[in-house]
Specification:
alpha/beta; eight-stranded mixed beta sheet; six-stranded mixed beta sheet; 28% strand; globular; binds adenosine-5-diphosphoribose; binds P-hydroxybenzoic acid
């Protein structure tokens, strides 16, 4: 069986795996990525698009932020609309930080280009990837590529293979603890080459459900509508989507809505999920492989980026002679992950409509929004979580 060797074997070439590979390469640590899909497939996935400043700094560190700085849109605030109430969260004023609106697909494209230019190994269409001997000092991966079985020997395995990956399942059931919450609704998303309805994002709540007005650029919009879990995207014509969105938007925004043919439309369920621990022997989990958040707080990509920031640091310390970072990786990563989980759950709960809930809960949600409107402290708490807590 053809066998190769590297220091860190990374499973998955999503943002987690690619950013980890770039951080390790910068620290002089050899790494190979095994990805089950093709590069084109990875780039065809439409994902979220709000970057915390910590994420931007990590991309800067690896020299992968030029296009982000040229084309990304810095946002100093966003808007919340709750029934007839409107509130701007002044991120910059409240925290000193902005966020950058730049699509995850573009982050992935930049990291892929960077990796190819640096001549780092990525095996696309590597199937049947399996981790072995995690509890030994010589873990390895088996995989199939081009019709043959291969073996990749390494010092460490990084499971950056997303929610449906294989790495998490390699942790023994007696060790792995899972915490999960499924929400009783999904998001129907639509991407269109139309001018965004507003300069800043609008997160809205109405009796009919949640909506989000986001963007990818000054000429490309991304909108979402809360939908039932049993809905099918085929039943949502563009016209129906635009009409429904217009009906949920505050009147003055509805009047400004530019519509056009969709480039993409899809439904995603909302879920909160955490797997603990994030290290087992010489296997590390990072990003969606270890945790999922509902997209309401825009935390998914950012939590993935800070995981791999911590992991790259721990591995660099190991090769420098100290294993303290490795010993503490899971605990340190999870401390930040749980804060992101809490925030995403809170913002999801505040802004969505929960079918069948009692009149009391509705009024409490409204009272919470009114409190937010009247309290700078509450707005600051929201803002500091949204721009990203310190590492
Ligand atoms: N073998 C090899 N590769 C795999 C396997 C496997 N068995 N299973 C999954 N993969 C690949 C997927 O094809 C995907 O390209 O791992 C990659 C995981 O990428 P993501 O799902 O994007 O996860 P991650 O890199 O952690 O990025 C987190 O993505 O889903 C969003 O909200 C999330 O923004 C967050 C970000
Ligand atoms: C997006 O633009 O896709 C987006 C933005 C903010 C979110 C979620 C998704 O909270």
């Amino acid at each position: 069986m053809p066998t190769t060797r590297t220091q860190v074997a990374i499973v998955g070439a999503g943002p987690s795996g690619l950013l980890l590979g770039a951080l390790l390469a910068r620290a002089g640590i050899a790494n190979v990525i095994l990805e089950q899909r093709s590069g084109d497939y990875v780039l065809s996935r439409i994902r979220a698009g709000v970057l915390e400043h910590v994420t931007v700094e990590l991309l800067e560190q690896v020299g992968c932020a030029q296009r982000l700085h040229a084309e990304g849109l810095p946002h100093a605030g966003f808007e919340l609309a709750f029934d007839e109430l409107r509130l701007r969260i002044a991120l910059q004023e409240l925290t000193g930080h902005r966020v950058v609106v730049y699509g995850q697909t573009e982050v992935t494209r930049d990291l892929m280009g960077h990796r190819a230019a640096a001549g780092l190994d990525t095996v696309y269409e590597a199937t049947d990837v399996r981790p072995h001997d995690l509890e030994s000092a010589r873990p390895w991966l088996s995989y199939r590529h081009g019709g043959t079985e291969h073996r990749l020997d390494c010092d460490f395995i990084a499971g950056c293979d997303g929610f449906h990956g294989v790495c998490r399942t390699a942790i023994p059931a007696g060790v792995l603890k899972v915490f999960e919450k499924a929400y009783p609704f999904g998001w129907l998303g639509l991407l269109a080459d139309t001018e965004p309805v507003a300069e800043e994002l609008i997160y809205g709540h109405t009796e009919a459900g949640f909506h989000l007005c986001s963007m990818r650029s000054r000429t490309r919009s991304r909108y979402y509508l809360q939908c039932r879990l049993d809905e099918r995207v085929e039943d949502w014509s563009d016209q129906r989507f635009w009409d429904t969105l217009r009906g949920r938007l505050p009147a003055e925004a509805a009047a400004r809505l530019h519509t056009g043919p969709s480039l993409e439309k899809s439904i995603a369920p909302l879920r909160s999920f955490v797997a603990e621990p994030m290290r087992h022997g010489r296997l590390f989990l990072a990003g969606d492989a270890a945790h999922i958040v509902p997209p309401t707080g825009a935390k998914g990509l950012n939590l993935a980026a800070t995981d791999v920031g911590l992991l790259a640091q721990a591995l660099a310390e190991h090769y420098g002679g100290s294993d303290a970072g490795i010993a503490h990786y899971s605990q340190r990563a999870l401390a930040r992950v749980w804060k992101g989980e809490r925030f995403s759950w809170w913002m999801t709960t505040l802004m969505h409509q929960f079918e069948g809930e009692g009149r009391f809960e509705r009024r409490v949600r409204r009272a919470e929004f009114e409190y937010l409107c009247g309290s700078r402290a509450a707005q600051t708490a929201l803002a500091e979580n949204y721009v990203g807590l310190p590492l």
